[in-house]
Amino acid sequence: MSVRKFKFVSPGVFVKEIDNSQLPAVDTPAGPIIFGRLPQGPGMRPVKIDSFSDFVQTFGNPIPGKATGDVWRDGNHQGTTYASYAAQAYLRADVGSITVMRLLGEANADAVNPDGYAGWQTVQSPATAVSDNGGAYGIFICQSGSGATKSGHLGAIFYMDSGSALILTGTVAHTGTAIVSGGAAGLFEAASDTPEWTAAISNSTGEIYKSSFNFDRNSSRFIRNVFNTNPQTVNSAVVPSGGFSNGETEYWLGESFESYIAEKMGDGTLGTSSYAVVLAVKEKDDQRQDSQLAHTGWFFSQDLSSNTGSYEASKMKDLFRLHARDAGSWLQNNLKVSIQDLKYSRNAAGINPFGSFTVLLRKADDTDNVVEVIERYSNCNLNPNSDNYIARKIGDRVVNWNTTTKVLQELGTYANISKYIRVEVHPDVENGQIDPRLLPFGVYGPEKLIDIAAQPTAMSPTSVLYNGDDIALSMCTSPAPNLFSGTLPTYGLTCSFPDTQVRISASAGALTNPQDAYFGLNVSSYLEITGEGSNRPDEGYGDYLYSIPPNFRDSTNLTYQWIVSLDDLILTGSNVVYWQSGSRSDGDSITAGGTYQTLVDTGYTRFTSPFYDGFDGLDIIEIEPFRNTLLSEGSTLTNYAQNTIRRAIDTVADSEFIECNMMSMPGLTDATLTEHMIQVCEDRGDALAIIDIPGAYTPFSEGTAYYSNAANRVGTVSSTVSTLESRQINSSYGCTYYPWVQIKDTINGNLVWVPPSIIALGTFASSEAVSELWFAPAGFNRGGLTEGSAGIPVLNVTYRLTSKDRDDLYEASINPIASFPNEGLVIFGQKTLQSVPSALDRINVRRMLIYVKKQISLMASSILFDPNVQVTWNRFKSQAEPFLSSVQTRLGISEYKLVLDKSTTTPDLVDQNIVYAKIFLKPTRAIEFIAIDFIITNTGAGFED
Question: Which of 137, 336, 661, 684 matches a 20 to 30 Å C-alpha distance to 93?
């Protein structure tokens, strides 16, 4: 500090510390961007991850694949999540962060034909014969009793592939005799008091699978125990067909609503003498849509009027609703939201007339006895000018993809504080045009299809023989506009769709304090609610929230499963509070006999809402929705999977939007997409694409030829080399490896075959951790996979290379993964995909130059808009030269020269506001070949000669 800066008033000694010993912040190089399918987490936007524990918390554990179970409910655990292992391999070295992009299904805006649309649809064709059946069929359960019309409740939905059909068999209710024809639409009596029915499913070859079933989840004949729940088995492109005789299927059981059926039957055992009928559920099988954001219904206000008799929830003021920040079904299946701690203003006419409330984000399967809070936002209000305004507390920004500019755009006013959700406030709230007394008092539940009366249509049954019984298989004739088809002999039928459970009484669940009860959504099953179960959540909870098909997103087709308001709470004479829809309009509720403050003062201010309508946009019949044999078909207009990956790569094409020094989508071998990734890296100029190539290994998920024939999966060196050479790639911004390797999954304990790009990423990180990023990530010192260089245990290779194989691969710019008797598995090459010989045909040089260019660019940006004079030039040189010297000292370059003076920045460039500098570099080359002459001499010869 200059002496002139001191303030001298009276005599004395003036001392000031000037600390010039501060170490500059160490710049951690940006890590890789990894694309892939993952079980959960943010989708189709880049997310920075700093540790593997952070990755698991955000995107879930790695999935090794080939898992069995209820795929419809539990998700796809058949396909391997290669991106998870890539993240684990890189992050293990602790050299910096990664950026992850989870892939969800996204169709092109101009998509054509069914294959161009995201999502899924069962295979079906016009119903002209039994072999043309297909689509979605619901099993509706009816209560016993007489009468011309019965109430049917949807118990389960079967999705049938083309050529398959579902019927019930047994005793028909209206005749009391065994069925001989018209089996699909008849009302069938339960075979026992459980009760149980028998279903017959035919396939395209005429074989029939027949089984008894019920809706008791503790029974061995529970419907999900006896029918196929894996949609992937219908995919003849991947799973070998063969009908039931080979254990494969042409149908799957989707949603089942056992808790709802138990509730409707009244006694938890579905009643006795109940009936079942199978009816086609039109359009339910058409889920062709992009990934969708889950959301709640609108939270609405209390009734401030004194005319309680006219109360309707639809007349109340909508205040806000909550949306998932990212698309997909994970959030709705795993989280729910509660409102609590309602407080009205004690100074309603004064400075702060707004009340407050708390928003809780909870685990979906917790209970009101043990609340598991994920996020809490306390003292929220609806005052746009307050620091506690709900949109400001939680965030309201939404990310949209601009199809024209190909960039992600963030819209909204307030930054998202929540990791999971954002707020949409009603325009009247946002603009300050509501009564400040309003509080969130209720919520609209999830949407569902409206109840519909089934109407008979013409049937054309065809009989097939099963164990001597004549069973009729009926067809859908697709009548419009009805949802159902089928002949209903004797009985008419009103069909209803299922509702999630709601809390009725504050005393349910044996709460210590009844005021802790959350009305609205109850995730427990009906048996748990009535005290007859084992205190576990409804395992089918997610089935009630499944996305509404696009063709039904119309107010005329939809209604709400329920609408809950605190205005409908009743206080009994025994001091038990319970919810009864319509009680305010009947004059029986607490607020009907007082005011909303009366209810708030009782402490019963809690209610819960689910999220619903989220959708992943993926084809659920695919083991790997992004398999390469699928990606090779069509274009981005006719192939949603291809469009999804291209959009993901385009999202990170701008180096100013997201930093990285590498890109990879492990397992992707499609030529068009991998070359697009290389091109994006080259255009950015700061990243290296690590790609996988076809011919090395083909996983079982790629098609029927590989599903059960392991011998077909392993390729050859010659075919791999010729395939890559035919592509004529010439870029130093890409590299590739051969062959695939077997790793040990340290979390699940499985042995998994993974693409070599995964262990390349791990080796790059470990090499950087023990040396510098411009040291070659190869050889026994830094490329020893057996020694742990990959970051995850590597046990084997799909193909053991000979010396000639290594030569052939390296000549084609494919880096070999070799196996040596003593050293084990080793990455034995470090070439880029540049075919023209130069220093940049080696990975260590390309990575060095990427790093140096990035750091020099950052230094250069610090003098932007400063005077274009020698002083400014010298300031840039004072930063750049020590940096280059440091790289030289650390063996990244052998020599350098920086020129920035009037010979480079000439007067005419100054007049154009340009500074022009030249940096000359001599990259340090890695030793890849060692030549040693052993010279044998005569005894009398002198070595000095």
Answer: 684
